């Protein structure tokens, strides 16, 4: 980073000027009191609606954070593009897409539907993510126990985040599992239609999905994960190659078309950036070849996206030419 700075080769040379804008947008969005905090489990319901954090990490490692960026939250559905990336890297897209499609579902993220081929529509909705977890659990190194598989996956998340510790919230995991009637229904429905890979242990696959949702991090670190995706799979802080560029391309393509629940089409139109939101109020945004952004604020709109997070993105592209088109 320092040598790039001396050579005047920074991706964002006027970083201070840029972050002044980010700060300005941050305060503007802070006034937005729309939305409600998820209440299906007590651990999420207890989250203050006032939390609001924004973190940025560029592809050459410049960083900026403002607000509640060190407070831990469970990454929930923001784990979906990441487990999908791991499955692509280890199994290849041909194998992965035998089990899950690439089409937006046009329905709620947990709706009880499959596509015309009796596969989940895509890996960004619950059914697809459950199947990705089944592939990681059953098809990749099947001899590994659930505990070993969890360690392996956690280690992968840490490498994406620049070898920083990622946490696990056991209370959220236990609550998710208790409140999972719909996810079990999705699982049974997929089992009825023989969607799972052979030899899958249904209970272990479901547990693995709940565990991935219950991984815990903060805005600061999730922005580094975004930067690793923005940088073609190489973490800008450690320079470690965590994912193959072709896996990252597939992940970003589906984040672009399917990452924002049933707002994905409008988000792709208005903001034009790959993003994934989670029920804890996190929003992972990737500006390819430029930066990763993490936005976190628990109040959600009626589709499940963070109100402040979406407002931030719309404001960002109105000031900067980041829309892909
Ligand atoms: O699986 C669930 O229902 C929760 N853990 C919600 C995950 C989430 O963020 C919503 N996602 N698509």
From TrEMBL:
Substrates-to-products reaction catalysed: L-glutamine + H2O = L-glutamate + NH4(+)
Keywords: ANK repeat, Hydrolase, Repeat
Complexes and interactors: Homotetramer.
Highest rank taxon of the organism: Eukaryota
Protein name per the record: glutaminase
EC number(s) given by UniProt: 3.5.1.2
Similarity comment: Belongs to the glutaminase family.
Keyword Acetylation: no
Molecular function via GO: glutaminase activity
Keyword hit for Aminoacyl-tRNA synthetase: no
